[in-house]
Here is the input.
Amino acid sequence: MNRLRLGVNIDHVATIRNARDVSYPDPMRAAIIALEAGADGVTAHLREDRRHISDTDIVRLSAMLRERGQPLNLEMAVTSEMLDIALKHRPHAVCLVPERREERTTEGGLDVAQGHNWIAPFVTKLRDAGSRVSLFVGADPHQIEAASRTGAQVVELHTGAYCDAVREGDRNAAETLLIALGQAAAQAERLGLEVHAGHGIDYETVAPVAAIPQVAELNIGHFLVGEAIFTGLAAAVVEMRRRMDEARRAA
Here is the structure.
């Protein structure tokens, strides 16, 4: 299996900054630390309500990562406002995600099957601008098949339900959900899609996901920022990278 890439989501560095409406901690600094500690790219979600990452953050991250030759993965809702921002900055990758103002975090995957006629033109415009397009979906064969028909190059599998089941000690549910993730990854690869995974992953849950052979990239954020409080961000990224690589070798 190929080396598994790690994208570090820096959203919640901005959450801490915004709690005091000041300039510190700086997500840019977090991005650099993560990359120097072994991350392969940086992920940032520009939400419609700007609850963490800001427009200025995206401007600065885009410029800095382009200069370094390292990728920015912009997560965004499927809205005209976000499309205009993505087309302006042309990040390396764009991950289209569902978004509700009331949610604390992304609750599930896109309904690509239902929203195909709205989503597909977004994919076309983003691809034409030079961005790789990913759709954030659940481990549902209907959604994987629908994603393949939009022209997106990537699907990112929502791992939140699996991670929650592990943390709650529900072994049967966790096993069932992990099997579903593996089947979804295999289906996506058969359809010519690159497979990423993310949401809720921590030290306890990373190895089984990393061992899924079709998965090429993990995107991890909240846990790493939380762990950084105790160990520092660089150490947290190094340890996550170690666990990913170890699981990959064992698989």
In short: The mean pLDDT is 95. The longest helix spans residues 171-190. The radius of gyration is 17 Å. The CA atoms of residues 7 and 219 lie 5 Å apart.
